[in-house]
Write a structure and sequence with these properties.
The structure holds 3 protein chains of 3 kinds. Chain B is mainly α. Chain B is built from 9 helices and 2 strands. Chain C has 8 helices and 10 strands. The chains are: A mainly alpha, B mainly alpha, C alpha/beta. Chains A and B meet through helix 1, helix 3, helix 4, helix 6 and helix 7 of A and helix 1, helix 2, strand 1, helix 4 and helix 8 of B.
């Protein structure tokens, strides 16, 4: 019997809570040997759930790119413990370990979420939140956003096109900033007017203040299986961390 | 200006998350069901508009627009921004899920404070309401036209929010360890021009909104009383 | 050949993952041409304009504008200031608070001073019978007025060619007549997309039908 994790549908609530717990677990560790094991765990998870390799790597590099400046500066700003001179600047080992720890944490969390929730649609996610007792008004905000973000994006694109057709180009000038101000102002006005129309349409269809939700989810044996396997493997990976002597990672160099 | 996973210490994260949950709850309480589409669409517009990259000399920067969002939404800025940040995490791949609460506070609190400070001034300008704060009298002293005064209020709200967010992000980093001081300082300095230009753009937008649809800024005043009415209607 | 304002040569275009919109499409706009374009919904009439303005780039074929081959965004920048493109939806086009700011937006982009832009604005508005509209709030105008202001905003850039995308949509009889009269009086090349046969026969000399990715002379 062929069985693929990526094609099995789990209860989205399970996936959300599981990812969240993993994230909290990851940030509560600070020693490198555990973080390495947790990273290895999330890599395995991503492989098991058949995360698309190229696009995931791209996103990961994007996230790491954001942090690279901060991380590169850490070994020079840590200012305690042993150091070597690097181009005349003190280079602190502890700063380097901290930078690596941050990198491992961020990437482990990212991989775990991509594995578990990468295939979940935003609408499904919002519905799952509603069934996790998140206030329905907030869920409605999310659902409306899901519905209208692309509409507004197209609207903005059309307006920008019209501006380009009249010779507009980005520049560092008052004219450019003012035009962008008008553009965003117009986007806001149109959004509000669209919202007014939506409200009217809702009232015409009998809206009285409560939002009915159609989706319902079912917690099944599959979910129990997922959670227990997840925890079991997590324990295995963490025990490897215990067995590894931290000093071989840190002091060896 | 988002903080990523793994940098901030756990106690700070926990504290920020609790406060953020409280703020979102407070914001949602102030919202009547009829306002939901408006809040959602404004959050969506904010999300879409923040993609625009504005050139500043040789570099370019995204607009934050939180000051503007604060003026337009009032307390509803908390749920609106949370929804927007969630969309962002979802679309751009889950960076910063554990720092969601802290990032939300860093972005929305200055916007909300901008609302508290500058909204009375703006209302005073638009609807000639008498309010406790009356700095516009001070501006009138310089014989500025109403349009200019509105621009100045918008400018202050816009750059105040950006500057406030910068300070809060820097503070979050500084509280996580002194090794982050250098980054925090660099970040503030690098973003100061943005705070200024954001002020200019938000000034233009506020002027634009008041001339086209001044009633936008009425919303907050009436829905504070109206939401109380609806909740009492519901309970009776 | 060199005289043509626009020459589109064997253009092929498809949106990602969709069936091809244009296949080997040829089109030419000469000085003083008055051309009508008709075609069913989704035939690609608006996309044709977008290709001419460089808002979309073809996968194959060449777009020549004013004698220059245009292959990328940069090539099209000077083209856009010589072509007036009237959008189907005026609301997409008008985004400034007042009529004056909107009409002067184009001239300012061309690098004119504020004084020159203001003069051109009031001159253009006068010509279209919109004098006194300068301080009006664009958003509050009627549909017909918006269309005329949008027209003014592109005429203010003194274009050589007008691309009009369904200009008569949603206009009442009076606005329709006003627009027709103004367009007739303009001595510029025009390409007009419309479903309105009467309007086209009134204003244009030849009509093309856009069908199956190609233009056919009617």
């Amino acid at each position: 019997m062929s069985f693929s994790l990526s094609e099995t549908s789990f209860d989205p609530r399970t996936l959300i809570l599981l990812s969240l717990c993993f994230a909290i677990l990851v940030i509560s560790f600070s020693s490198l040997q555990f973080l390495f094991c947790l990273f290895a765990f999330s890599v395995c998870l991503a492989a098991l759930f058949k995360v698309p390799f190229v696009s995931t790597m791209k996103k990961m590099l994007l996230i790491d790119g954001f942090m690279v400046l901060a991380l590169l500066s850490l070994p020079f700003t840590f200012a305690s413990g042993s150091f070597i001179l690097f181009l005349g600047f003190p280079f602190y080992w502890d700063g380097l370990w901290l930078a690596i720890a941050i990198l491992l944490k961020a990437n482990s969390i990212f991989l775990c979420f991509t594995a578990l929730m990468g295939r979940m649609g935003l609408a499904e996610f919002a519905h799952a939140l509603a069934h996790l007792n998140v206030p329905s008004s907030f869920v409605q905000i999310l659902l409306f956003m899901v519905r209208y973000i692309d509409v507004l994006k197209l609207e903005l694109q059309r307006m920008l096109r019209a501006m380009k057709c009249r010779g507009f180009r980005y520049s560092t000038s008052w004219h450019c900033w003012k035009s962008i101000g008008h553009l965003i102002g117009m986007l806001f006005v149109r959004s509000i007017e669209r919202a007014e129309q939506i409200l009217i349409a809702m009232k015409c269809r009998g809206f009285t203040g409560t939002f009915p939700l159609l989706h319902h989810f079912h917690y099944s044996m599959k979910d129990t299986a997922l959670v227990s396997t997840f925890i079991a493997f997590l324990i295995v990976f963490l025990s490897i961390g215990f067995l590894l002597d931290g000093s071989f990672l840190k002091g060896g160099i | 200006m988002h903080i990523m996973d793994g940098i901030v210490t756990s106690p700070l994260l926990a504290g920020a998350t609790i406060i953020a949950v409280g703020a979102v709850g407070y914001g949602l309480k102030r919202v009547a069901p009829e306002d939901i589409p408006k809040i959602a669409l404004l959050a969506a517009a904010f999300f879409v508009a923040s993609v625009i990259r504005l050139p500043i000399g040789p570099t370019s920067a995204h607009l934050m627009l939180t000051g503007l969002l604060g003026l337009v939404l009032g307390p509803a800025i908390f749920p609106a921004l949370l929804a927007s940040l969630m969309m962002q995490t979802f679309i751009f791949g889950f960076g910063g899920i554990t720092v969601l609460g802290l990032n939300l506070l860093n972005m929305s609190l200055p916007g909300f404070v901008a609302f508290l400070i500058f909204m009375p001034l703006l209302r005073n300008e638009l609807f000639k309401e008498k309010s406790g704060l009356d700095a516009s009298q001070f501006l009138k002293f310089f014989a500025l036209s109403s349009k200019t005064r509105i621009f100045i209020i918008g400018f202050c709200a816009g750059s105040f929010a950006v500057f406030g967010s910068l300070l809060m992000v820097a503070l979050s980093l500084a509280l996580s360890g002194q090794e982050f001081f250098a980054i925090a300082k660099f970040m503030i300095l690098a973003n100061l021009p943005l705070a200024f230009i954001e002020g200019l753009v938000v000034g233009v937008i506020v002027q634009f909104l008041t001339s086209l649809k001044g009633e936008i800024f009425e919303v907050n005043s009436f829905h504070q009383t109206r939401s109380l009415r609806t909740s009492s209607e519901l309970s009776s | 050949m060199v005289d043509a304002y626009f020459t589109l040569r064997s253009i092929s275009f498809r949106r990602s993952k969709q069936s091809p919109l244009f296949q080997g499409l040829n089109f030419e706009v000469l000085p003083n041409d008055q051309i009508g374009v008709i075609g069913g919904n989704g035939a690609g009439k608006t996309s044709l304009f977008h290709l001419m303005m460089g808002l979309l780039l073809p996968q194959a074929g060449d777009v020549f504008a004013f004698g220059q081959v245009c292959r990328n965004e940069k090539d099209f920048v000077p083209v856009r200031s010589q072509v007036g493109y009237l959008f189907q939806n005026s609301d997409d086009q008008l985004f400034c608070p007042t009529v004056e700011e909107d009409v002067s937006f184009g001239p300012l982009n061309l690098g004119m001073s504020h004084k020159e832009a203001r003069e051109i604005t009031s001159k253009t508005l006068n010509e279209l019978g919109l004098s006194g509209f300068e301080k009006r709030i664009t958003h509050h105008l009627s549909g017909g007025e918006k269309k005329l202001v949008a027209l003014a905003s592109i005429l203010a850039m003194n274009p050589k060619v007008l691309l009009l995308d369904e200009p008569t949509n949603n206009l009442d009889d009076e606005a329709y007549k006003r627009l027709t009269d103004i367009l007739k009086s303009l001595n510029i090349s025009k390409v007009i997309i419309s479903h309105d046969r009467e309007f086209l026969s009134d204003l244009t000399e030849k009509t093309y039908r856009l069908e199956a990715g190609q233009l056919h002379l009617e």
